[in-house]
Amino acid sequence: MSHKKIKMLCTLSIIAAIFLLPLHATGNYIQKNPSSYNENPASEIQALEMIQQSVPSSSSYQGHLRVYIVEPSSRWNDYSNKPYHFGFLDFAFNDRISIPYGETYNTTLTWDPNTEGYSGITEGNIMVIAVLFNPEGTPAYSHPPMGNKFTAHYVDACAGSVPGSQGHNVVNDVFTHTVFVEEATATWCPYCPAMADALYSVYESGSYPFYFVSLIEEKDTEADERLQNEYNLYGYPSAFFDGGFKVLVGGYDDEKYYRSRIESSGQRDVHDLNLSISVEWQQDSGVFIDLGITNNEETENGSPGTPVITGTAEGRTGTTYEYTFVSTDPDGDDIYYWVQWGEGCPSLEWIGPYSSGEEVTMNYSWANKGDYIITVKAKDINDAESDWGTLEVSMPKKQAKTFFSVPGTLLDKLREQFPFFHYFFIHLFI
User: Fold this and answer.
1) Which fold has domain 308-399?
2) Of residues 247, 267, 39, 241, the one with CA closest to residue 149
């Protein structure tokens, strides 16, 4: 293909992309107030800092737990004058938590509607949804594919419950977790009911393990802050699937737009977590919430550090020398050592175990003069092995068979006090 044809095709592709870009997953919507548009260098820096600060600890899972209080049939009506489905009221909990590997996080919460300013709450019209968001931040866009950037924290586990029941994060052959959807909506938005009805229809079908909440921007301050500050909302209605893994803008009434995104979200690789929630109705104080989250992830076993060898680097054959080996295991596991002295057959077994960081002392003497390399490898009790540590040694001469080696003689005492005298004497006469 000629250079001109290639250039023409590239130009046509760019033009097509420009015309097709507004059609990307966008139905009928109303853009939020342009004055509240929040995409500037400061927010970019803040988003980057959020990503950098959200790296999980090597010894625990550190996610963000949000416990949503919703009314299945909301006290507020949408533009079509019908009650919202799962209208958001408040967070019973909204903070970071840490769960060590193999351990369980338990907490109990009480949400009192009277204290929070919500009268008329009934036992039959209250639901609690607990959602655990991944600590790692991922760049995402509330106006796909490239508009209104925000930092997404995907959902790792979700469970919901009404009074008198218990809910669990569902894992099956298809879904790795229960999916969670946040619907950005407003009472004055004429396109919002279409999205609300479609989401509710999918929910009622029971096809998938998923929950959704309606974040009604002008009815709740926390809902508005979630939409504007954390999702950098572009327009109403919008649906954020699993914390922003997928975003849909516009009032689509066809369920396929929601089903495809729920299915895609539900098949993500997530942390292995068991999440359960139970709710009890307390007439005088609202709802009592019992949460349990077990971290089933296993700590990655780190290899011990390369052993450090200390001892004599130059000596004489026939003389026994002392050598010390030490390695540290990142997980604090006990350590075995495999030592080879550089002559003859290699070692046939690991020695140990020893505590991580414990110095191990061994003695050795070489029978023949020459240069040797001491090599040592460490492994922990889980069989993770280190690199080889080495120390070069030289045994240049055999031990002189003179009266220098006879204890108690004058020259023996001189040898002890003046080692250089002994060295030069040997080289001069041997």
Assistant:
1) Immunoglobulin-like (2.60.40)
2) 39
